[in-house]
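Hello again, I could really use a second opinion on something today. I owe you a coffee for this, so here goes:
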Amino acid sequence: MTSSVMPFDASDAGFGDVNAKTAASLLAVAGDITLVMDSAGVIRDVALPGMDSQFNAAAEWIGKSWIDTVTSDTRAKIDTLLKEALASGVSKRRQVNHVLADGADAPIAYTALRIGRDGELAAVGRDMRHVSALQQRLVEAQQAMERDYWRLRHVETRYRLLFQIASDAILVIDAGTLKVLDANAAAGQVFGDSPERLIGRLFPFGTDAEGARALDELTMTARNAGRSSDILVQMGAESRAYHASASCFRQESATLLLVRFSTAEVAPTVGAAANSPLRVIDLIERSPDGFVVTDLDGNVLTANRAFLDIAELASEEQIRGTPFATYVGRPGADFPVFTTMLRKNGAVRLMGTSARGMHGNRSEVEVSAVWAPDGEEPCIGFTVRDIGRRLAAATPHGARDLTRAVEELTGLVGRVSLRDLVRDTVDLVERHFIEAALELTNDNRTSAAEVLGVSRQSLYVKLRRHRLVAPGADEPPVS
């Protein structure tokens, strides 16, 4: 990162009487960190007006060579900064990385300038950690978009494969114009034309007038009710009998119809209904969201491939009979909440919690549930959606997710007294705002106390009570 330096045009008029103390003050406030060095690059003084507590150890750099305080891959930049400053009086801005006490790298953009007759130098730096953090978030967002893009491509590929190898003739039709948008190979055989030439034609076609009226009623019923029952129509040049059915669905902003034709000899109406559960089970198994069926005690009866991936297990036999709470929610806490909500509402919708794999990986998930308590085999069905890759709005570092925490406390209603719930909620909110104030003021407790409208002594008491500071550490003077 480089930039040219543009000096003032009339520096003598504005800076002619500046003394050494004033010049030092100007350098100290010109950046987040300022280093004063001799001509060999040995640090003689350090000013940290804009840095946080992570740079407190910078005072130990005095007496060390500047080049020894940065990472090995940026040492060459230090040499360039020193040479440029000694040669021309001021260098271009370059970014180097300092090694902090905790081992992390801190990117700082420095400009070096000669300030003394004997070659004394000053390096004025600007903290670039916030820029680096934004760049990292951008990279993570791009990677998440790439993963989601390829996942959608794989799903589309599977859909196209299933669509084309289906033995039934299938047409996808625009519900408004009744024009064919897509057709599979079996549809081409039924209508005696290639699937490509069927696209764009106005439905219905390929049948007699009576069959066309029946298909018109079929599509109208599907648009109004969402799906239609099977009807028997004569299709094609040979007037073969087919069972036709239609269903309506939304894709983006368009309403579409899926019309299916199956031969009456192979797939009568009763047979089509009998095969329907098998198709549903197959779709659930292929779903990208986890699906689990448990008994009323929470023991897993069956799970699809997506949930096995969340649980980090290889086969359904490994998970069958194990408690659902082993993988989702807090053990012994969240499952009773699910059953309570099911008894009250009949369903659980998008409850946020966490999931754990058998190898220790954790992820944030949303859980929906429905139950069948009165069937021959009472059971509960859970849908588990991994939301860990969602790009949520950034929250201040160190501040707790207040909404999530309050929801967790709400889940304790009925198991904890109201007095304890209110006390814990007040403590939670107070801690949240104290952390937010410390984040806003870069951990400056005096400023945080002013922001919160409390005395500094009172803030320290609250910090100790919420264990945000070690007991006895940095006690304020008693006034």
The chain has four domains: 23-127, 166-279, 286-392, 406-465.
